[in-house]
Amino acid sequence: ISSACTVSMFISTRAKLGKRKVRDEEKTFWSCVEDFLATSSIHGLGQLSKSRCIVSHMMWLIIVTSGFFLTVFMVYLCSQGWQENPITTSVVQIPIEHIVFPPVTLCPIGKSQGDQDDNTDDDIAENTDIPYDNLKSSVIQCSFTKNNVDTGKVCDRIQEIFNENGLCLTVNNVDISLNTTGAPVKVAGVGYKNSLRLTMNSTVSGVPVKYRVFISEAGTTVSKVFFDVDPVYQGDQTFHLHGIHYVQAGANFRAWNADTETCYFHEQRKLRYFTSYMQDNCKRECSWNKTISVCGCAPRSFHLDNVVDCGQEGLTCWAEDRHSITEEEEAICNCKNDCEMTHFFFSLIKDPSLKPVKPRPFIFYFDTHIITQVNLELKHTFFDKISAIGGTLGLFCGVSVISIVELVFYFVKLLQQMFMRKRKETLTQIPIDYRKFSHNSPDVIK
Prior knowledge:
Blueprint (H helix, E strand, L loop, with lengths): L1 H38 L5 H6 L3 H31 L2 E9 L8 E7 L7 E2 L19 E8 L2 E2 L7 E6 L2 E6 L24 E5 L2 E2 L2 E9 L10 E4 L5 E15 L1 H10 L18 H17 L16 H10 L5 H7 L7 E12 L9 E5 L3 E9 L3 H15 L4 H28 L6 H6 L6
Parallel strand pairs: 12-14, 12-15
Antiparallel strand pairs: 1-15, 2-7, 2-10, 3-11, 4-5, 4-8, 6-7, 8-14, 9-10, 10-11, 12-13
Helix pairs in contact: 1-9, 3-8, 5-6
């Protein structure tokens, strides 16, 4: 009897202790939650833990929840803005000497062809009557002056190239037929004293010629506007260049564009017929490919590798079928905008002389002292985004890095409490062998 009473008392005592421990564990769990709410720097959580009235409790719960929803909504709006318009521009005025002197391309054409002073590039000049050899000898004199003193530059970068007008000379361009480590020379200054001067022969291998003059960006040899000039003109023929703006991309923009390819840098995409990428070169190549597929040939003046030269029938086909590509065709050809470019325009001023003079040089110079530089950069860097998100969290919720660390700390603490509680519950479910009490008791009635 005594042994049975002992067992009964043990079981009863153990059950009471188990219930008390469960209550203590529950109390410890909720006290941990209350400690977090009371000490957290997140707005409203302290009031939420202090409020005893149900109305006040619900009000603060709605306020805290609304703050988090507003934060998520504002961060979403910011991310949408970053994706739709990630680029920002800044504008500064820089001296004209900071940009490259634009390449000048001169193409000899028969005097019967170039009757107009200015044209567009919509026609093809197939100059079969002009020999294609030793065109550099047509340059009588070349100089690139700074303060009226020849610098000895630029003139060593005269290259023979081919375009729609046949064999041409391009001056101060990137390497096309050259293979050097040099680069195009920058503008020497403003005005006549800082100019490129080219005196050209009036004949090429005995054929009287004019020169079709293009002033373009580095990397191409044609422009939408050109002038036909005669080297035997009695007077001065001066080209005035007017700088508009110069677009320059920053390092962050370059890194971002390497993945997104919103636009192309000159070296970013390879073309078949051109050494450097430009949108005009890409469109021109796309148009050529389309016409070559129809006519099966290209004009001999194009000098295209692995393409058959056209006869008279082929030239007629080119004249009829060559046209600008459509927007759909442009999308297929993937002719994206240039990331960097220089925008300028030029005009030709002729000053006749009443007295006969020997051949005068073609003169090229800038008449503007400054140019507007447009810098392309990412609107928000990684740190800008962190600042924007952090500012929004702090404004609506009072969340900071310390708050996040504190939240993680209490979360780990709660997990630890839950784990310990689960472990203790498992231990309390282990069955008890009551026979050990009866065997060891001296008062057991057998």
